[in-house]
Amino acid sequence: MDLNSPSLNHLLDCWLAEDLGRGDLTSIALINAKGSANWTAKQDGVFCGGDLAKCIFQRLNNSVQVQLLIKDGNAFKAGQKLLQVEGPAAALAAAERTALNLVMRLSGIATCTAALVKELEDTSVRLVDTRKTTPGLRVLEKYAFRCGGGLNHRLGLDDAAMLKENHIAWAGGISKALESIKAESPWPSKIIVETETPKQVEEAIRAGADGILLDEIIPEILISHIPKWRDLASTRTKETGSDQIVLEASGINPKNLKAYAATGIDLISTSAPMTRSYWVDISMRFTTS
Amino acid sequence: MDLNSPSLNHLLDCWLAEDLGRGDLTSIALINAKGSANWTAKQDGVFCGGDLAKCIFQRLNNSVQVQLLIKDGNAFKAGQKLLQVEGPAAALAAAERTALNLVMRLSGIATCTAALVKELEDTSVRLVDTRKTTPGLRVLEKYAFRCGGGLNHRLGLDDAAMLKENHIAWAGGISKALESIKAESPWPSKIIVETETPKQVEEAIRAGADGILLDEIIPEILISHIPKWRDLASTRTKETGSDQIVLEASGINPKNLKAYAATGIDLISTSAPMTRSYWVDISMRFTTS
Amino acid sequence: MDLNSPSLNHLLDCWLAEDLGRGDLTSIALINAKGSANWTAKQDGVFCGGDLAKCIFQRLNNSVQVQLLIKDGNAFKAGQKLLQVEGPAAALAAAERTALNLVMRLSGIATCTAALVKELEDTSVRLVDTRKTTPGLRVLEKYAFRCGGGLNHRLGLDDAAMLKENHIAWAGGISKALESIKAESPWPSKIIVETETPKQVEEAIRAGADGILLDEIIPEILISHIPKWRDLASTRTKETGSDQIVLEASGINPKNLKAYAATGIDLISTSAPMTRSYWVDISMRFTTS
Amino acid sequence: MDLNSPSLNHLLDCWLAEDLGRGDLTSIALINAKGSANWTAKQDGVFCGGDLAKCIFQRLNNSVQVQLLIKDGNAFKAGQKLLQVEGPAAALAAAERTALNLVMRLSGIATCTAALVKELEDTSVRLVDTRKTTPGLRVLEKYAFRCGGGLNHRLGLDDAAMLKENHIAWAGGISKALESIKAESPWPSKIIVETETPKQVEEAIRAGADGILLDEIIPEILISHIPKWRDLASTRTKETGSDQIVLEASGINPKNLKAYAATGIDLISTSAPMTRSYWVDISMRFTTS
Amino acid sequence: MDLNSPSLNHLLDCWLAEDLGRGDLTSIALINAKGSANWTAKQDGVFCGGDLAKCIFQRLNNSVQVQLLIKDGNAFKAGQKLLQVEGPAAALAAAERTALNLVMRLSGIATCTAALVKELEDTSVRLVDTRKTTPGLRVLEKYAFRCGGGLNHRLGLDDAAMLKENHIAWAGGISKALESIKAESPWPSKIIVETETPKQVEEAIRAGADGILLDEIIPEILISHIPKWRDLASTRTKETGSDQIVLEASGINPKNLKAYAATGIDLISTSAPMTRSYWVDISMRFTTS
Amino acid sequence: MDLNSPSLNHLLDCWLAEDLGRGDLTSIALINAKGSANWTAKQDGVFCGGDLAKCIFQRLNNSVQVQLLIKDGNAFKAGQKLLQVEGPAAALAAAERTALNLVMRLSGIATCTAALVKELEDTSVRLVDTRKTTPGLRVLEKYAFRCGGGLNHRLGLDDAAMLKENHIAWAGGISKALESIKAESPWPSKIIVETETPKQVEEAIRAGADGILLDEIIPEILISHIPKWRDLASTRTKETGSDQIVLEASGINPKNLKAYAATGIDLISTSAPMTRSYWVDISMRFTTS
C-alpha cells in the first residue's frame, strides 16, 4: 500500500472533513491539553490499516506521534493493544472516529478473508476477490483482502477484459468478441470469459481466452470436465492461444468451498469479505498521565 | 436525500472514475450497441438508493433512461424487479458495478435497520445510529438508516457537543466542561454527556445536559433509576437546564433490545446496520431485444 | 479555529492562487533576497486571523517565520505592531495581499461585533449572528464574530431547522410543520420558528418549538408579551415541548439595541458585523536589515 | 462576466455546499411543493450579480426558472422588484441565502463605486480599484466595480509589474529594478512604480516607467508638478520609454476626491467600494399561488 | 475514447481555465455576436481529437454547434475542411486555442504513428508505444497512437509488472524477482522482463516471464536467437510458464524498422510519435455570414 | 518559476497519479530497498525543469534526496551528468518516468529556443512565443522558452487584448474595436492588433494600438514600411496613442529568420519550440552501492 500516493492523501483529507464538518464542537473544552490513547482489540482478528491510521492522525495534526504495535496482515487476540497515539488532545479526539472506522472495516475484511484462505491451506488454489467493493474504497479494500492472504482479481474495468454473456451477444459470439478485444487491447493484457455451461467453456478455450470464469457450475461437473478443458487448451498454438488456461470458480459459499477446491480449479473468487463481513471491534481509550 | 447537491455529484464522479480507471477494456466489442437491463432482487429486503443509481448511470451518459420500480424505504421480495435501464450498452456496462455496489450496501443497511425498528414497533422508543460509518459514505449511510425507519443521531463532530470521559477529565469535571461548552456552542445546539454510572448521570443532569448517553448500563439499573433521573431534571430551572432530559442507551444487541426498550428510555443507539449487516443481493441482467 | 482542517488549507491555497495567477511579475527583481516586515495597525480595533495569516505565508513558502504579537480576540490601538514576518522576500511580497485582505476583513467583523456586544455588557442577552456571510468565508466570518464576543447562530442549513413563513404555508400550518420536522430531524437538533406576530408566537410555543425568532416586533410588544410566553412554555409537557423557550429578536439596529436588550429577550441577532462593517486598516512595511 | 467559466461554476458549487452542509434540515416539511418568489430592493442602489444568481439557483436544480427584471449595472429604487424565481420549493429555499448574499455584496460594491464615479463625471479622470478584495471573490468584486462605472486596475500579481519601495531597495535602485523587470516581463506588459515623493517620480519617469502611482501626495503638490512630469516624459526616446506617462493618485477619500480630480491626474485608485461599503438590502419573499 | 469520463471532463475544464485566466480581454468588443468558423488542414495527416474538440467548445458554452467532417483515425489532405463550428462568437474565440492545440498535438502523434505502422504493413509485427507521454495527456496521447494504427503498451505502472535491471538487482536475481511478483500480482496480469543480452533473455524465459523486452539488441542477434527462445518457451509447463513468449524490440529508429520487423519479433516499441513528432498545422477561420 | 505555487503542486500530484494508477505493480519486489540513480544526457542541449524534477520525487516521498548538477537555462553536453537522486527505491522507480518526461519535454523546448535565439544574437530583436502550448503545461512551457533565452508573449486570454480579423469585423472596424476595448480593459494593459496588409497596419496605428502583429508580411515590404509606420506613431498624441509602436513579425521559419531580423522589427514570434521540437534524450540509471 503506497501511502505517499497523492490520491490517497486526498481521500484521507475528505474523510476527515466529512466528520469534522465546520469543526469539532466538543473539543472547545480541551483546547490546549495534550493527551495519549491506546487502541485495544475487543475480539480476535487480522489487522489491516495501521499505516493509514497513522497518516490520518498526522494529516490532521503533524505533531501527533503514532506507534504501531502490530503489522498489517498479522493476527491479534481480544484484549491486545494495537496502537498508541500521543499529541494534542483536540486532534486525537477529532481524528479518532475516522481512523477507527477505516481500520475496523479493513480489519473485518482481512479477518474474513483469512478464515476463507485457511480453508484452502493444503491446496494450490488461490482465493481471489471481485469488483464488489464499497464505492471510494476499492484500492484499500483490495489491499485488506491481500492482508488476509487473498490474491486480487482485476482492480477495475481497465485492468483486463472480461467478457460476459451480454458482451458476447452484442459482439455476435465468443470468437468475434475475442477477436475484437485482442485487436485493441493493450499489450500486455489478458482476456477472461465468463461462462455458465461446459459448452461455453469449450468455445471460449477454442477462441483463445486466457482465463475462464465458471459461474455457479457445480463441483461434480467441474471434476469431470476440468481435465478435458486443460487438454483442449494444451492443443492451442500461437495463433489460437496459450497452451494453458486459468480456471476460476465463482458462486461459492463457506460450506462448499472445500468441495470446489478439490475440483482441480486454479482460483476461487468471492465477494464475501467485502459484502458479508462484520467490522472488527476496536476501542480507543485515552490514558491518564 | 438531495441529489442536486454539488458535493454528492462530485462523489458519484469519483466512484465512476474509480472503476473505469483509464477506460473499460471490455466494451471495445460493443461500441455502438444499445441495450437494456433489469435489476432483480435475489432476496427479501428494504430498498435504498434508487435515485442515486439513476444519477450514476446518467452522469456517465445522459442519454441513459432509468425507470425506478420501487421507492426508497419500501420493502421488496426475492425475485422482484427493482429498476429498468436502457441506453448505450457501453455506458450500462460501465456504470453497472458502481450503481449496484452502492444500492446493495445501502439496501443492506436499510434492511437491517428495519428489522431492528420492527422490534420497537409497539414502543415510543426510537432507534438512532452512530458515527461508525464507512469513510466517504456518512450522509448516504445515514440516509439508508432513515429509510429503514431509524432516526439519525448527530451527523458529524460539528452537529452537537458530546462529552466523553476524557473531555470531562481534561476540562476538570462535568460542570466545568458543560460551562465551557455552553459559553461557546452556537445557538441552537444541544449537549450530550456520555456516562457509565448512575452517579455520572446525576452529575450530568445537575450540570444541565440536554441528553445523556447511558453506555452499557444494564436494563435493571435503568428501570430503577430512570424515574429518579426524570424527577431530577424536572427540578431544573432556566439557569440550570430544561425540565426534561433525553435518555439514550447504547451497547445493546438484538437479544436484549426489547429489554432495553422497556426501561423507559427515549432512544436506543446502534451501529449494527453499518458494521454488522450484509449487502443485499441484487443482480443486473441485460435483456435481449 | 482549527487550522489543520484539510478544507481550510485548500481554501488558503485557492486564495493564494487567485492573486498569484501565473506568477508574480514584480518579484523577478528580487529573486534571492531575504526580507522581513511588520504589520502595524492604522486604527483601533479587535484582532482576528493571526494564525490564518501565519498559515498563508507558510503555505506559500514553509521557510517563512511568522511571529504573532497579539492574540485573536484582543483589542489593539492605532500604531500597534501586530505581526512580524521574515523569510524569502519574494514569498513575503506574494503572500502579503492575501494575508492582509483576510485579516483586515475578519478584524473588521470582530471590531464591529465587539462594539455591539459592549452595549449588552450589563445584561444576560447574547448577540448572535446570521447566515448573511460572504460566500466562501462562512466559517471564518463566524469565527471573527466569536472573537468579537458574539455567539454563533446556526452555521448552515443542516445545523438546525428554522421554519419560516413559507415553510409553514407549504406544510399546512405550524403544528403540521413542526410534526414533520420532529419526526425526521436528527437527534439532537432543535427547531426554531420565525414569527412576526404575537399570535404566531403562541402557536409556535404550543406546537413545541425550542426557540422563537421574533422578527421586527417592537420592544413595547415584547416587554408586555414575553412573560406570558414564558408562562405558556412552562406548561408544556414532555409530549408538547420543553418548559423553556429561547426568544431571539431580529431587526435591531445600534440605536434600539439597548431597548431590545431590556425586553427580557434571550438573544439578539444581527448581520451588521458582516454586512455593514468596514475593514480594519493594517499596513505591512518591509524593514531594512 | 463569463458565466461559462469552469472555474466560476466550481466556486458556485462550493458556495452552495457551504450553506447546505449535510442537507437542508428545514425542507423536510415541503418535499414536493413547487414555489415562486420575488426579490425586492429595500433601498436604492446599483444592481450587480443577476446572472450569477440565476446560475446559483439552476446549479442546485436545473428546473428552476429565473427571470431577471434588471440588468447588471443599472440603478434601482427601494421597493423595486429585481428578480422572479419559480421551481421546486426545496431548491428555492436552499439556494436563497447563497444567491442573496452574493448579490447584496456585489450590489453594495457597485452602488458605492457609482457614487464615487459620479463625483468624477465632468472630468476625464477614471476611478480604478485595487487588489484589496475579499479572498475568493477577486474576479466578481472587480466585475461589480466595473458595473458601478469604475475601471479595473491589475487583477493579480501576474497582470503587470508594480514596483514598491521594497522592490526598489532589493534591486538596488529604480533604474536597476526597471531594467531587470523589462528584460523578463512578457510582452505586452507595463510597469508601474509606486512613489511617495516628487524626487522618486522623476527617477521613475527617467527610468522608463509606464505609469506612476502617487501614494498620498497632496493635491497642491500634484498640481504644481504634474505638468513638469508630463514634460519630462515627453522627452523620452524609444530607448528610455514612451513619451507619455500615466499618473495615478491613491490615498484619497470621498471628501478630497474632487480636489484630486482637478490636479491633472489620469487615474484615482480606491479600495473603498470593497473595504468600506455596506451590503445592499434585498429581500426574497415567497408568493402564494 | 470515452468522452463521458468524469475525469476527462475535469481535464477539459482545467485546460479552458488555463487559457481564459480571469477572462478573455479581447472579446469585450463582440459580446452579443454570433459567429461561425471552419477548421482547415494546412498539411496532410491523420486526424485525432474531433470529439474532444466538440466537447471543449460545448463545455465553454453548450449552445455551440460543432459538426465533424472527418473521423478520428482517418487521413486528410492539405486544404481539407475538418470541422465546422457555430455559436456565440465570444465562446468560439475563447475555446479556439485550447481545442486547436489539443487536436494539432494529437493529430501529430496519429500522423507520425501511421507512417511507422505503414512500414510494418506486410508483417504481423505490431507497433507499441511507451510511457514517454506528456504529463497529463497519457490517455489521450495513447488514444492518438491507436488512431494511427498502433497498439498500446501498458498505460501505467499499475497495468502490468515490468522488471528492469535494477528491480532484478534489488530482488536478488530474475527468478526471485519473478517469484515475488507472481505471488502478489493481481490475476490476470502479465510480467515482462527487460533484457539487454541473450543470456538474460534465457533466464527470464526459464523464470516464467510472459513477455521479454529486448532493449537495443541488434537484428542479427535477434534473427539467430529468436527461434531458440521460442523453443525454450515451448518446453515450459504449468509450473514454469506458458509455452509461448511475446518478444518486443525497443531502441529502433525509422531506418532500421524494417530490419527489426524481419527478425521474427512480435512487437516493436517506440516513443517517437510522442517525443519526435511535429504538431499538425490546422487553422481556424471565421466565416462571414 | 515559483515551485511553491499551490496550483503547480496540485498539477505535479495529478501527473504522478496518472502514471501510478492504483499502484506500481513492479515495485513489490523491492519494498524496503534504498537506491540511488543518475540522470545522464544522451545528447547536447539546454536544461530545463531541475527544480520541478526535485519536487516530483519529493512529493512522492519526502525522504528522497535530489542533487541538481546543472541549472535551468544552462547548456549541457552528451554524456554529462545532470542530476543525482537517492532514497527509497520504490519511490525512485515510481517517480522516474513522470520526472523524466517533464524534463525531456521542457529541455527540448529550451534547446530549440536557444538555437533560434542564437540566430538573433547580434540584433536587438527579441524572440517571443505564442499561445500554442500543450494543454495543461502553459506556464511550464513558457518558462522553458525563457530558459532558452526567449521572451514570453501574453500568457493567456486575460493578459492583453489582441484584436484579430474577426474581432474587428464584429466590432465594425479597427477604430470601433479599439475604442470598446480601451474603455473596458483594466489599467495597465496594452492592445495589439493583428494585421495582414500595410493598410491595416496604418489604420491600427492611427487607432492607437500599442503593438502590431504583422502576420506573414514578407521582409521586403517590412523593410520599406517600418520607418513610415514608426513616423506615423510618433505623431500620436495623448488622445490617440503613444509615440511609439511595437512591431512583431510572425510566420517566420529558421531559414528566413535572419532576413526578418534585419527589417527593423522589434519582436519575432514563433511556436516552433512548442510545436516542432524533439524531446531531449536523458536516461536515468540506478547505481550499485
- Low-pLDDT runs of 5+ residues of chain A are none
CATH-assigned fold name of the largest domain in chain A: Aldehyde Oxidoreductase, domain 3
Q: What's the helix count of chain A?
A: 10
Name the CATH class of the largest domain in chain A: Alpha Beta
The overall strand count of chain A is 12
> Strand-and-helix sequence of chain A, N→C?
HEEHEEEHEHEHHEHEHEHEHE
How much of the residues of chain A is beta strand, in percent?
15-25%
Tell me which oligomeric state these chains represent. homohexamer
Strand order of the largest sheet of chain A: 6-11-10-9-8-7
Q: How is the biggest beta sheet of chain A arranged?
A: 6 strands, parallel
3D shape of chain A: elongated
* Radius of gyration of chain A over all CA atoms, rounded: 23 Å
Largest interface between protein chains, with number of residues from each side: A-B, 69 and 69 residues
Structural class of chain A: alpha/beta
- What is the first-to-last residue Cα distance of chain A? 34 Å
Taken together, the total number of domains of chain A comes to: 2
Please identify which CATH superfamily of the largest domain in chain A we are dealing with: Quinolinate phosphoribosyl transferase, N-terminal domain
Please state the second-level CATH architecture of the largest domain in chain A.
Alpha-Beta Complex
Q: Roughly what percent helix of chain A? A: 40-55%
Architecture overview:
The structure is a homohexamer of 289-residue chains. Chain A contains ten helices and twelve strands. The first copy, chain A, is α/β, with parallel strands linked by helices. The first copy, chain A, folds into two domains: 6-111 and 277-286, Quinolinate phosphoribosyl transferase, N-terminal domain (Aldehyde Oxidoreductase, domain 3), CATH 3.90.1170.20; 160-270, Aldolase class I (TIM Barrel, Alpha-Beta Barrel). In chain A, the strands form three sheets. The first copy, chain A, has a six-stranded parallel beta sheet with strand order 6-11-10-9-8-7. A four-stranded antiparallel beta sheet of chain A has the order 3-5-1-12, with helices on one face. In chain A, helix 5 (165-171) crosses helix 6 (174-184). The longest helix of chain A is centred in the middle third of the chain and has 31 residues, at 89-119. The radius of gyration of chain A is 23 Å and the shape is elongated.
